[in-house]
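Design a sequence for this backbone.
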């Protein structure tokens, strides 16, 4: 007599569950690129169907890329799906944003497949065929606005193909409260969500209510903290704050950089590094910078020579971050990445190529980009951004050590900087006050970018699931398991 062991697909369920039959695919998650959100949502729906193939209806809260991917995947499986989005459009964060460029694989460098941004992948030599994914047809990264348009066209087609798929938009406060109350109380008591008064995008459900078997929250990660206290030159002004431009908003950073003005970036994560590169180079995205570096065969050979080590550093970092929640893993990754960049910066051809990617100074003196980092290492960031910033930084250090001059915009990184506030100065100038080892310092700039990440008090999943505003330990370490690139 023999017995077989059957494997149950459940990582999506365990990593996203926040309440009975309620899953959260956005807030508090670890891998959060737009592609990761698509993959996470599709995996979760597949796991729910495997667990309960006979369920009939699903409520999705949030019309971002994760919510749309969830909705279409479930609709293709024959489930009734209602998506609720409080803004006027799905993908509202990305609509109209031309200052940010995105691509499903742009940050998978140094893996070679990072160059093509066509999604789902079409290279039959290393990828199986995928269906149902939001398609992206450009080889290069595109603006967030163009990304939103392409995904919206895909979703609108799905609405026409599936009569049981619906999207409500423009939820006012009273409708938002109705939804939150239902999730907190009505859903657990097997109630129905009243759909009366909702504005429907292109279609209208035949029934005036829905009794979902499951709820998937895809309402985003929360509000970004991009503010600092105002400063009067001697102390912080109580109750006043300087507010920088949020990540998913068009900003004037590149306009100021193009005009030859100084820029200050506050933060040590990926958003801060993105802004540093946008200020230092004229490129729309870091892949452009990388390609310009690789236009020199010698530099390309140097980069390929360190590719294996960088891949090992990145993979080890991801594995450590998955199995042990210790932010110090990024200190280790950052230090190792910095060592690789430092070794490359010693080569004169690499230095020349990197300087060639930077903006030329447009006025006398030294035009610079200053990065104020809280620790002595960069926090969680994509390897390409991390590596390029370290490489540029080490090249300036090498030039300074050799007393070599240059005509390019400089990078000045201030480590262990405790930022106090921002002072308004005449002629649209700002002065950022900070301390290092208890010593007060300041730096002037025409533009200040603040990248502190998500304000935990605004996490949507916590607000919708819990009756109190207290922080809850609801996310397991499975949320840090690396995701496939496509499913």
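Sequence:
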């Amino acid at each position: 007599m023999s017995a077989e062991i059957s494997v149950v697909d459940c990582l999506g369920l365990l990593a996203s569950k926040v309440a009975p039959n309620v899953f959260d695919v956005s807030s508090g998650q670890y891998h959060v690129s737009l592609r990761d959100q698509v993959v996470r949502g599709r995996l979760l729906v597949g796991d729910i169907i495997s667990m309960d193939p006979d369920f009939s209806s699903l409520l999705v809260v949030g019309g971002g890329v994760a919510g749309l991917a969830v909705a279409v995947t479930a609709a293709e499986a024959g489930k009734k799906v209602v998506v609720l989005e409080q803004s006027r459009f799905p993908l509202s964060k990305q609509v109209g944003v031309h200052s940010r460029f995105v691509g499903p694989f742009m940050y998978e460098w140094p893996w070679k497949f990072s160059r093509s941004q066509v999604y789902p992948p079409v290279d039959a030599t290393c990828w199986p065929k995928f269906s149902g994914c939001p398609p992206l047809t450009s080889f290069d990264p595109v603006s967030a606005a163009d990304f939103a348009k392409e995904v919206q066209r895909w979703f609108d087609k799905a609405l026409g193909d599936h009569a049981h798929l619906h999207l409500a938009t423009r939820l006012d406060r009273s409708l938002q409260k109705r939804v939150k109350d239902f999730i907190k109380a009505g859903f657990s008591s097997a109630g129905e969500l009243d759909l009366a008064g909702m504005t429907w995008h292109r279609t209208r459900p035949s029934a005036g209510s829905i009794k979902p078997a499951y709820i998937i929250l895809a309402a985003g990660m929360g509000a970004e903290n991009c503010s600092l206290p105002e400063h009067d030159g001697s102390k912080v002004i109580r109750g006043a704050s300087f507010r920088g431009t949020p990540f998913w908003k068009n900003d004037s950073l590149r306009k100021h950089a193009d005009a030859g003005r100084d820029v200050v970036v506050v933060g040590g994560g990926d958003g801060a590094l993105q802004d540093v590169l946008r200020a230092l180079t004229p490129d729309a995205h870091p892949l452009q910078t990388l390609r310009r570096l690789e236009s020199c065969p010698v530099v390309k050979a140097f980069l390929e020579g360190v590719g294996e080590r960088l891949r090992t550093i990145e993979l080890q970092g991801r594995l450590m971050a998955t199995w042990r929640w210790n932010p110090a893993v990024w200190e280790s990754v950052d230090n190792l990445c910095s060592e690789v960049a430092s070794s490359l910066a010693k080569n004169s051809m690499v230095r020349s190529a990197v300087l060639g990617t930077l903006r030329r100074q447009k006025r006398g003196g030294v035009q610079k980009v200053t990065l104020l980092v809280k620790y002595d290492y960069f926090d969680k960031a994509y390897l390409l951004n991390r590596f390029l910033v370290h490489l540029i930084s080490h090249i300036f250090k090498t030039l300074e050590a050799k007393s070599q001059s240059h005509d390019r915009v400089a990078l000045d990184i201030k480590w262990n900087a405790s930022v106090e506030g921002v002072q308004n100065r005449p002629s649209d100038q700002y002065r950022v006050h900070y301390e290092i080892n208890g010593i007060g310092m300041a730096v002037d700039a025409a533009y200040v970018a603040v990248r502190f990440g998500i304000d935990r008090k605004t996490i949507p999943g916590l607000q919708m699931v819990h009756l109190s505003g207290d922080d809850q330990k609801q996310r397991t370490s499975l949320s840090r398991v690396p995701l496939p690139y496509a499913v």
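Residues 297-323 form the longest helix (27 residues).
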